[in-house]
Amino acid sequence: MNHLIPLDNLVAALGRLPGIGRRTAERMAMTLVQDRKGLMRLLSHALLEADDAVACCERCGGVTLAEENPCELCIKPRLDAQILCVVETPGDIMKIEQSGGFQGRYHALMGKLSPMQGTGAADLRVDKLLGRIADEGIREVLIALGTDVESDATASYLKEILTPRQVKVSRIAFGLPAGSAIEYSDASTLSRAISGRQEMG
Amino acid sequence: MNHLIPLDNLVAALGRLPGIGRRTAERMAMTLVQDRKGLMRLLSHALLEADDAVACCERCGGVTLAEENPCELCIKPRLDAQILCVVETPGDIMKIEQSGGFQGRYHALMGKLSPMQGTGAADLRVDKLLGRIADEGIREVLIALGTDVESDATASYLKEILTPRQVKVSRIAFGLPAGSAIEYSDASTLSRAISGRQEMG
Fold it and tell me: Do residues B18 and A28 make contact, with C-beta atoms less than 8 angstroms apart?
């Protein structure tokens, strides 16, 4: 089907979505072509609209409306506005905000240190982070990164550059997830939970 | 994040793609928002272009360019133009055509009989199929449907309505897939392969 170039282009574009391989992209494209409820136009419109209306906050990096920049989370009064929570992606900000467990400000690095993928400190929003600590009178930086090697390296790096700046550096706790039991936990989770044990009040 | 309606709309539209649940749609939307290489506009454009340029052939139901209708496969001389291969979807036509194993014409039903999903004979392109058998002097109808219950029911139904029309009705063979071995075949495949055994020449 060499002559169906618009279809090939659509498959290629869909294939650039995260987790979508060529086969899935082909299946999606075929569904879209066969659809009679205007799904192609709906999706195209939603993409254009989002592209116009949604942006990343220039301060925290989180997702916001283009006309609200800096975003609501950066502007509105927050109980713990002197605590800055450092995350990897804008999506992480949403997750933590939805959890309701944090009342401070956010800062998305837009990545983590990864020699394998060629991501160095200059590719992350570290300068902005340092600027904000001074400008906003931040007293504590809470590092909310995952447990993989790259997250650990990024956390160590941040700890190192933040230490001279008279700011407390903390990292979210690792341990048993809510609703879990010792019986179902892996060794790595258990040892992290033990080394991170907290004295009972 | 109730105020990010364009993002919610995008998640909803992506969630209508086949095999994409809410979580995956959210992840895709976040990737698109963070992307700085114009992926949203590229995808939007590819969708609009495909929507304008690609259509289903009014004769066989296969995918074609809007300006080539009926499609190339329906128009061009074919070695076995008197054999009509009946499939479920336009994608099936592509798959069989890519296999190079068939030189006749195609006809996509756009579904199969499914009481569960409320798909009856009137929802399939059966009238068109009967018309084509007469118009194009078809001598054999080759049913290329799968092995599930609905495909079997659809095949039986077609056999029944085609029998009075003096046309040979065949169905693709079921058996061991290429490269497979008895050892790795399931019972159902083996019994189909045995009942469908062919005399060696």
Answer: yes
